[in-house]
Amino acid sequence: MTQELNIVHTPRAVERLVGGQFVMDGAGVRINRVLTQSLQRRLDPFLMLDAFGSDKPGDYIAGFPEHPHRGFETISYMIAGSMRHRDSAGNEGLITDGGVQWMTAGRGVAHSEMPEQSDGMMEGFQLWLNLPAKDKMTAPWYRDIQDTEIPRFTTGAGVTVQVIAGASHGVQGAVRREGTEPLYLDVNLPANASFEQALPPGHNAFLYVFRGQVLVGDKPVPAGRMAILANSAQADGVRIMAAQDSRLILIAGRPLNEPIAQYGPFVMNTQAEVFQAVEDFRAGRFGA
C-alpha cells in the first residue's frame, strides 16, 4: 500500500459510540468487554474485544487458567505488563510491554495465559478474529511478536503508528491474513495532530480510544469508548484528529458473511459443529 493510497477524500462518520461492560473472566480478572456478542454481526469478522488495565494485582493476578478455543483466532496485545502463554500444542511464550501474541485456535487448542508479575500495571487488549468456514478446522498456530518486531512509522505531524496487522502508509504489518484482511493499528497522536487511514468500503471498522480524546469528523470520542465507523460505498477511509495527546487502536476487516454459532470459547458455523467441539474437548482431542 503506497503513501498516496492512504489519502482520504471522503472519511467515514461515527455510527455510534460503545462503552462496553465490565465483567469478570478467567479466574477473576476484571475486564471491559467492549465488543460483545450482540455486535458480532455488525462488526464481522470480529467476535470480541476485551480491554483490561489496572495497577491493582487483585484485578489481574489470577490470570486465565487453561481453557479451550476452536474456530477463531485470538490476538493479545500487551500495552504494559507480562503474560505467559502455554498451550496443548506444546507452545510456550512470554509477551511483555508492547508485545503481541497471535494464536490460531483452528480445530482446537487448550491454553493458559498467566501474569508473570505480582505488582505494577497490567494493561492490554484481547481481540477475537473469526476464521472462514474453510479454515475453522485448520491446525493450531501460534506466534509471539515482541515490541521490537512490530513495524512502525511516524508521520510528518508526529503521529506514531505501530502496524500489528495489515498495512498503513506503505508499511506492512507483522501479520497478514488473506481471508479476513485484518488491519490492526496502535496510533499515538500528539495534541492537535491528525491521522488518515484508507479503508476498503466493504470492510467493517472501529476504533477504541484508551488515552485522551479524539475527533472523528465532528464527533468527540473520549477514552474508554469504542467508535463504530459507518459503512458507506462513498467513504474511502477515516480521518482522526486529537483534541489532546491521545492513543487508540484502529481495527478493520473484511466481513465473512457466514453464519456464527457460538458456545463460549467455541465459534463455528452450525450448532452441530459446536456440539462436536464440546464433545471433542471433553474427549481430550484438543491436543498437539
From TrEMBL:
<dbReference type="InterPro" id="IPR011051">
    <property type="entry name" value="RmlC_Cupin_sf"/>
</dbReference>
<feature type="domain" description="Pirin N-terminal">
    <location>
        <begin position="29"/>
        <end position="129"/>
    </location>
</feature>
<dbReference type="InterPro" id="IPR012093">
    <property type="entry name" value="Pirin"/>
</dbReference>
<feature type="domain" description="Pirin C-terminal">
    <location>
        <begin position="184"/>
        <end position="287"/>
    </location>
</feature>
<dbReference type="InterPro" id="IPR003829">
    <property type="entry name" value="Pirin_N_dom"/>
</dbReference>
<dbReference type="Pfam" id="PF05726">
    <property type="entry name" value="Pirin_C"/>
</dbReference>
<dbReference type="InterPro" id="IPR008778">
    <property type="entry name" value="Pirin_C_dom"/>
</dbReference>
<dbReference type="InterPro" id="IPR014710">
    <property type="entry name" value="RmlC-like_jellyroll"/>
</dbReference>
<protein>
    <submittedName>
        <fullName>Pirin family protein</fullName>
    </submittedName>
</protein>
<comment type="similarity">
    <text>Belongs to the pirin family.</text>
</comment>
<dbReference type="Pfam" id="PF02678">
    <property type="entry name" value="Pirin"/>
</dbReference>
